[in-house]
Design brief:
23% of the residues are buried. A hairpin with a 2-residue loop joins β1 and β2. This protein has 179 residues and is an alpha+beta fold. The chain is built from three helices and eight strands.
């Protein structure tokens, strides 16, 4: 006779693991009603995301500034405010950032035109126009234009970017070494 107080585990159940907030809640950027509108002086991650989105939508404020440079990534500081700065970057095909982090700064990366690939220990992630990524201090990644067309991105750093330490190997190689 079976014990009715013991619940059977379904055959399709995944093994118990510790989940991050992102795995539980999903991508916060995909939940539109949680995003805050841009304020003159943003103070929260959601407000910085809103700032990036409002700048992205105002093409007239940045499109005329874009330049492409085949020898190095082109960049232009678009705006500064109390405790943050906004950068505009362009990427020709094949250009990449190298594996780096942003020191003590958090950030919002928004693809304005084209497509970029973010490489991190979690694997590659393709980001098309309109895609956004939020990252915390110390988050290491490499961003590359793997396409045959140019790309433009917007980067909001808070606090303003004071360092960008480079790392020795690509995320794919560091993942392979740690296994």
């Amino acid at each position: 006779m079976s014990n009715p107080t013991v619940a059977a585990t379904p055959a399709h159940a995944a093994p118990a693991t510790t989940e991050s907030d992102l795995q539980i809640a999903g991508d916060i950027l995909a939940v539109q009603h949680l995003l805050q509108p841009a304020r003159e002086h943003p103070a929260t991650v959601a407000e910085f995301v809103g700032l990036a989105r409002s700048i992205a939508e105002d093409r007239a404020s940045w499109q005329h500034l874009v330049r492409y440079d085949a020898t190095t990534r082109w960049y232009h500081r678009l705006r500064t405010g109390p405790g943050y700065e906004v950068w505009l970057l362009s990427w020709v095909p094949g250009q990449g950032s190298g594996l780096h982090d942003h020191g003590a700064s958090s950030g919002v990366l928004t693809v304005l035109e084209g497509e970029l690939t973010e490489h991190s220990p979690r694997g590659p992630l393709t980001l098309g126009a309109g895609s956004q990524r939020v990252f915390a201090p110390g988050y290491a990644h490499e961003v590359v234009n793997d396409t045959l067309d140019g790309a433009v991105s917007l980067h909001v750093y808070f606090p303003g970017l004071t360092e960008m330490p480079m790392h020795n190997c690509s995320p794919a190689r560091s993942e392979a070494v740690s296994v």
